[in-house]
Structure formats: C-alpha cells, structure tokens
Amino acid sequence: MLKASLLTARGSRLERLVDRYMAMLPEETALECLFMTEVLDARDLATLAEIAPAYNMPRGVTPVDMPVESTGTGESDSAIEADSFHVNASPRESPEVLSTPQKGLGLKSLKETLSLFTTVPTGFNIGGLSKAEQKEVQARLERDCVESAILRWREDHAKLMDMGLNTSVSSVSLGPRLAEWQLNLEAYLTEELKLVDAAELAEKKGQKDMDRCQYGPFLRLSPPSRLSAVTILGTLSLMAMTGGDKGVPLVSAIYHVAKVVEQDIRAQVAASGSPTRKMTAHRGGARRLMRLAEDRERQQSTADEKGPTIARNETAAGWPMALKFKVGAALLSGLLKTAKITVTGEHPVTNARVSQAQPAFIHSSQLKKGKKVGVLVPNSALTDLMKREPNCDLLARHLPMVCEPEPWSKFERGGFLESPVALVRTKTEERDQIHYAEAAIRRGDMDQVMKGLDVLGKTAWRINRPILDIMLEVWNKGDAIGDIPALNPNIEIPLEPEASDDPLERRRWMKQVRVLENERSGQHSLRCFLNFQLEIARAYRDQTFYFPHNVDFRGRAYPIPSYLNHMGADNVRGLLMFSKGKALGEGGLRWLKIHLANVYGFDKATFKDREQFALDNYENIVDSVRNPTNGTQWWLKAEDPWQCLAACHELKAAMESPDPTKFVSHLPVHQDGTCNGLQHYAALGGDVWGAEQVNLVPGDKPADVYSAVADLVREALVREAGQGSPFGAALKDKITRKVVKQTVMTNVYGVTFIGAKKQVLKQLENLYPTLAQDSGLEVILCASYIATHIFKALSTMFRGAHDIQHYLCEIGGRVCDSISPERIDFLAGTALDKAKKVGAKKTAAAAEDPKGELHSTIIWTTPLRMPVVQPYRKSTSKTIQTCLQNLVLVSPDKFDPVDKGKQLQGFPPNFIHSLDASHMLLSALECEAEGLTFASVHDSFWTHAADVDDMGRILRDAFIRIHSEDVIGRLKAEFEARYKGHLCRTRIVKTSPVGQAIMEHRKKARLTPVKELVLEKRRQDLLASRKPKEVKMGEKMVTPGSIFAELASFQDIAETESQAVLAEEEEEAEDAEEGMEATEEAQGGQEPVFGPEGHPLQGGNVLALHLQKATKKAPARKPAKQMTEVWLPLTFPEVPVKGDFDVRVLRDSPYFFN
C-alpha cells in the first residue's frame, strides 16, 4: 500500500497516506520496511525520508533530541567509547562545496553516487542502526548504482516522450540520450545473443561464428539491459578519467569495458547467493570456454618450476585475457553502432538551423611514435554535453564503507560486501602471485595477514567537522592556502619576444611558457582531485565509516577506497579522526603536545623540548583555532598545516576543559620510524654505528641519520677542498640535511647512481639556483660528485647492510640464472617433438639454446608466512583478433623468461618492504589484543594519545621478535629447499685451466646446449641416488659440470652476481669522477669562460672537458675476458658475518618510533 501511494498520490494526500500506513507498523519493524529495496527504489526512499524523517532514526531518537558532541569531560564508558548515536557536531548543514570547472563526468558523477546520504537527516549517523541495517545500507551503496542509473535515464526519457518530444532532437540533457542508447544497445545485444545461439548450432563456422562461440557464453551471464547500461557507464567513465577529447586507445577502452562488466557480473553472482538454473548453465558454458583457453595457452609448455597445485575457480582466476578482449570488443562494437547524438548547426549557405544524427563515438586510427594505433574518439557534441552535465558512475565501490568490512576468508572474499576485491593487488594477468596466495590461504599460511587486515579495516573513522568547515570556507573563497591551490591562480605568461630577436631567447621563452602552463595544469588537476575529496568528506560528515584494506605483492597494506583515506595528503589526514574517543590521562596530554610539535615540524628535538614547544606557542595555538584565516595564521607555517590545525583544536579543547586529563580525544597521534628501511638493514647486518643513527640504540635525544650522513659528506668535501679540489671548495658549505635526505632514504630501496644524481641535482637547483654562475661548475657534475660521497658515507656507516644488499643480489641472480628439474625433463621428453609439430616456436628455439627457459622468478616467504613472488618478466606480445580490429597485447605469462635486471634491482628493496609490512601487521594484531585502536601508513603508526606509550612498547617488541631470528639465514634455507635440484648457468673464464678443459671436452662430445643440460641433470640425479650403483655411474660420467667440480676454483668464475649488478653503477660513478678530474685539469690555472655581460657561460666547462678529452689520450681499457658457460647445481654462498649489534637493546630506546 505504501508503494501504491507513492505511485499515485501527490502533495498533502501523499503525506497523509504515508503517515497512516507507517503508523500501522509496529515501532520495531517500521525501520525494516525502509530497507525492502525489492519494493522501494531509491526515489521512494528519498520521498519517505522527506515526508517522515523520524522513521530513518533508531528507536527513541528524533531529529530534535539527537545528542550533540560531548564536551569531552565525561569519565563514563559511554563517553569514552562514543555511543552508537554519537554525532560529530551540532546538526547544522555544512556549506556546499564550490565546484571546480573540470572536464568529463567526474565531480557530478560522484555527487550522484553520494545522493544516498542526502536522504539522511542532518546529524544522523548510520552507525546508530543495527549491524544488519548498516550492512543493508552498505549493500545499497555497492549494488544499486547501475539500476538507479537505468531508472533515472528511463524516467527522463519518458517525461520527454509524454510531452510529445523526440529525445534525439529535443533533449539538451544527457540522461534521456543515455536512455535511448541503453534501449538501442539492449535490443542489439538481444539480437546478438540470438546470433550466438545460431553460431553454436552451425555445422560450418566462419571467423565471426567462432568469435561468437567464444564470447557468447560470457554475454549470457548478465541480462542485456544491465550489460548495455554497464557498457555505457564504463565507456563514459573512461572518457571522464582520461579527459578523452583527443581519443582513448582502443585497447584501453576495450579492456576497461570488459573489466567493468566482469566486476559487475562477479558482484551479481556474489549477491545472488543461489543462482538460477539458467544462470548456472551459462556459467558452466563460460567455465568450459575458460578451461579451453587456458589449455590452449598451456599447449606451448606443460611443465615449469615447482609451485603449488591450484584448483582454480572461476571467480578467483578471472577471465582469460583473450576472451576478456573479445567480450569487450563485442560490447563496444554494439555501442559504436547504436549510440547516436544529434548535432545542430547552421547551414553554411542559408544560415538555417539544421540537425543531423551522428555516431556518438568514432573508431579511427592515429600515429603514435611512428605506429598506427586504433583510438576511440567521442563526438565533440558529446564531449560538450558531458562537460555541462556529468552523470552517474560506478564510484560507490571506491567509497568508504558505512559498516565494518567483511573479514577476509578467501582470495576474493573480504572487504566490501558485494563487490569482489582481490586480497593481493596484482598486475593484469599476473597469475603467479595469485596462485601462491590462494595455495597459502588454503594451507592457513595467510591467516595472520588476513587477520591483520581485518584489524585495520575495523578501525572506525569520522570527519573532523571544525576542520571541514574551515576547509570549505577556504575552498569556497578560491584562495590558495594550506596546500590548497587557488581557483584562478595568478600565473602570468611572459610576453612573446619579437621574431627578429635571438632564437635562443625565443627558445628560453617557450621553455618558460611550458613550465608555467604545466604549473597551471598541475594546480587545476590537484584542485579537481581535492574537489572529489571534499565532496566525499561532506557527504560522510555525520557518519562513522571504515576503510577495508588489502595488500600488494610484498605484503604492504593499502586502503581500498581510493579517493578519501588516511594515506592521503596533509589535507585529508587533517580531516580524519577516530570515531571512538579515549580520555587523555597524564600520558595522553603529554603525547598530544608532542604530536602538535611533530606535525609543525619541530620533530628533531627531545620529547621534553617538543612538549615545551607546544606550551611556548599556546597563544599561537589559540589564535589558530579562533582566527584560522584572519589571525596570525601560525598554523600555516607548519610542515603539515592541516594536521597542525587539527592538533591545535584538540589541544585547545583539552586545555580549556575542567580537567584536561579527562578530555575525550579522538585525534590520531602518529609514531614514525627513523628511515625504517635502514632500521631493518642495521638490524640484519648488526651495524652498531648504523643502529645508533636510526635510534635502535637508547639515547638521550633522537638521532638523525640524514644529518649524520650530511656531516660525513661535508667532512669529506672539506678534506678534498684542502687538497685543491674546486668541487670540494665550491660545495663544502652547501651540504645540508635536505640535500642528502632523499638519496639516503631511497638508497635502501635500490636507487641507482643515476637516480641518486638526479635527486641531488633537483635539491641543488631548488636551494642554490645560481650555483653554476657562482662556482663556474656544471650543476650536473656537482650532483654526481655529491652522490658519490653520499654512497661512500652510507657504505661506511652501514657496512653490514651493504654486505646484506650484495648478498641478496648474489643469491637472487643465481635463482634467475637457473632452470628447474621439471623444465629440464620437459625439454628432454617427447613434449618437445610434439611442440615442434604444432608449431610452438618458443619451445623449438629452446632446443638450440636453453637460455630462453630461464623462468625461475625470485620467491620468498615473509615472517608472517605470506609468499612473495616478484612479477618481473620479459613479456612477449601476441595478436588477438576482435570484431573491431586486431589488438597487439603484451601479456605476462609464467613461461616468459625472467627479466634478470629488474629481478635483481627489485629484490633487496622488496625484501625490506616485506619485513616492514610484517612488522606493521604483527603490531596491528598485538594492538588489537590489548584493546588499542590502530591505523598505519606503512612506517607511520597511529593510535589514541592515551595509548601511545603502550603502542611504542608493542612496536619495539614486534621488531625484536622479527630480528631475534636469523632472517637472512632462514631466507638461505628457504631458497635451498625451494630451488632444490635446479641447475644454474655459471660463467667461467675460457682461458683458465678449467675453461680450456671444458672447451676440449665439448669438441669431442659435440652435444647441443640442451643435451648438455639434460646430461648434467642426469648426472646430478645419479649422484643424489640412494643406490650405490647409481652413484658410481654418476661419478663416472664426464660433463662440463664434472670437469668444473674437479679442476675449478673460485677465481675461475668470471664474476659473481653482485659484481655484475654493481658493475654498471660503479662504472657510472667512475665516469663521473673521471669527468670531474678532467674538468679540474682543464680549468687548472685558467679563468672561467665568460659571456658578453661578464657571466660565466653554461657551456664553458663542457667545452673545456671536450677539449681535454680530445687532446688527452684515453687510458687503454683492459680487453674483455672471454667467457664460456657451464651448468652447475644451484648453491648459495654463506650468509655474511653479522656485526655486534644486539637488537634486544631496542627495548629501552624511546626514540625508535617518535
């Protein structure tokens, strides 16, 4: 009856009927009626919320008597735990967010998605509902966006049709046009499915029939009406994200549409629970096709290195790449054929207004980097319409949740309720990590990781209303303040020089214009993104919300909602508070003061000095709260201004309460590690000096590793300046903490010498823009000089860590150069001949050279037992035929050779990241066990001010727990077990005695490389046998490997893996030093080259350097050693000797995280 009233009645009559029927319901079921979404759609609920807002409330709470924010002085549990009906501020309406003009669908799409919150009365918290009702609201957010879009389009279309207007001609709005597109595409897909049925029954099938037989079962998984809507939304959202005025690469458009459709179908399957028999039949057909596609890929190779046996399922494995592109192409092809837009213009002769129906999207081609690339270009009329009136998008699956996330239980079961999300973030078609993760989940090895993610997801958040109101005030004024760019930045473009002027002057002008235009564009893009964040924050201003988390392949946790989360920039962190509060106590009040000093930037002093800093600046703190935009604006001078302002509000409120120690605080207080990567390296290598610099050793004040490195570099430059070095003399007073910080921070994560040089160059250009003119030295050479000294300082300070890095490169390189016994058996078996017959070129080529069979990637297990699989391979391209065009795709495959360079460059930093991630998740589990609220941003851990001391103890204990074990020794043991039986390709010097013996043997044996490899594998199997007879047979076999075992020494190996990896960087550093020496010699006793106005010429030193190189004979390089390769059993060297540092002393270090 309620539904009928909403459909038929209007005005006061509707209000009377709603009151009558709602009053008939018992009080406890009135609210449940509003969640019957199969009867009441979004518009019905909005109407009910407007007529009878009281029925949106929990029992006993009305809009009038809803509680306002507590003063923070209560001592009861309800005050401390913030009851379920807690409201952040008085129920007043926040001002609207001034929109930033932007292209595409983005902003209003977000507003449409957030429209659910507009039906909630101001000040009402969904968190006050029961758990079941919270989940129903969250499910609506995830589920209803497509249906509500279709309904809205059709209603707009029907209104115009009722008025006797043709939407193709009369509509100036996008909605009615989309309704027409949706109906036309639905009809097209219905006919396409009939053609699929016919193709499946046809005895003789052409290419189109074969394609339809492949993608048809996947199209049946969803109704044509929904498929058409999702295709339209996916295409338009891509245009919005890319600003596709100039077109989007067709391969990107096809993949995006297929991905959105796949996600939507998964969400439908997850939500349906018990699918119909027809749906089950369609899914069975799709599964069979998936198996066929995967079998076809496996025909090329059927064996690989040992790995977990995976019982794949449709949901976790996802659609195969080839089928995914065929599905996307079929849907996009239908949209291109059916989507029309009416373009109106003036006749060139008669000036009369004429209209023409044109395709909304055009498939064309463009030249990019000399290659012809297919693109999808929107009609210019559609682009203009999208700019004027954006529409709904699928953003709901990227918003914070209004109920606790689903606990993780499977690879794609956890986080959001109805939108499947992967536990581990992987690249497209990167299956190795998925397989290992699924196997680990089945064995229970991922339990701690999943529980840790559940802890992070259960942390309840809310919006800091005072900060939001200030931010909205600043935003709507359009001024630049606190890292928020201005609405209309005052960037003046310099006047264009006359055509007759110096061409160099015009070139400089063009460069300056490009820089200014990039700055303007960057500020506009940043403001557009901040616009998104403010809209979400405003919509959630009265709500309790949550961030579900997942991990990357290294185990680092990230929040899934991408627009608003605590890993955002300073403005977002300033907006967020814990939903639950805790009374400060004496310790919490102290930490609140320290936190304010930290976010202001006064974070290198002792805790006592930081606490005093807050007290000394209390007048500035009060002024910042009372007059944030018109006062002294002290908070804007902070390193993190918005977080500083939030801390000012919290501290002022606490100090003005009757008892500051009883003030209930919601502000997260941060504890940040001291260059966390170096902390792990110092513990692994046992470096006493290094441990002191990163606060692993107790001290009276915090150590600063960046300042320590700067001091070492400065001392070296002073010393060299005394020896006559112009670089030392020019730079000795310019070495600051800021110059070295980025290079020191990234050194542990694998920065190369070239990367370090660029980092230093950027700092020098920012801090000393006139360095070249003042010193007469090229800035790039100065940067190389400083980077070299930074590396030397780090190797001195962290000697053990340096050895660990070399060791990781060494063992990783041996893995990449190895072949598994299963792969060798495959090469030796009949599968090779079969592969040749079916034309498997890859495998046939391997018969001549087994180097193409180096598939072994680096895999290890974290301390929390999560398998980490490095995804770096040399992927090959393949052509996929679709109904639109042939697509050339680079698709990773586990049978592709590994990219050894990327594997070795990534291994040390990824290994440290995995330790860092394990420390964070272990700390999260311990914090939950002790009742602490916990959040993290990688190496920055957050909790209530009252709990900082407890969290600090937990962080120290977790670090000690990890490093009390022999981490590197355990890694070596794991590698020995994981890669047992592998044969490793080893390079030896051809002219050495063992090299000559092997070459002589090969002349006699005349074996192909593959046969030689297989023979060595046979010898190793015999030697490992338990039968003495077979062992003797193995001992009698003569192979290059046996010759090496008998005659070789370590000196015969051409180079170790760590030497190979470091050789290039060392050569770069030597070249830089040679260049500087040459420059110094060229400048010896000479004045710098000056220009007409007395300024040193930029190219003077370069010219001198080239002259020097031209006149001075280059030193003769040593001839490269001739090498040969031999297959040997894969072994690993001994772990480097650890230093004297005892990690247990960390327990007494107060500045470990500070």
Verbal overview:
The protein is mainly α and 1154 residues long. The chain has 48 helices and 23 strands. The strands form 10 sheets. The chain has a 3-stranded antiparallel β-sheet. A 3-stranded antiparallel β-sheet has the order 14-21-20. Strands 15-22-23 form a 3-stranded antiparallel β-sheet. The longest helix is centred in the middle third of the chain and has 37 residues, at 503-539. Residues 56-91, 102-109, 164-171, 274-281, 296-316, 388-394, 842-846 and 1057-1114 have low confidence and may be disordered. It is found in: Mitochondrion. Its EC number is 2.7.7.6. Keywords: DNA-directed RNA polymerase, Mitochondrion, Nucleotidyltransferase, Transcription, Transferase, Transit peptide. This is DNA-directed RNA polymerase.
Number of helices: 48
Radius of gyration: 34 Å
State the secondary-structure class: mainly alpha
Walk across the major sheet and give the strand order. 1-5-4
Give me the count of strands: 23
Q: Assembly state here?
A: single chain
Proportion in β-strands: 5-15%
**Low-confidence segments, ≥5 residues, pLDDT <50?**
56-91, 102-109, 164-171, 274-281, 296-316, 388-394, 842-846, 1057-1114
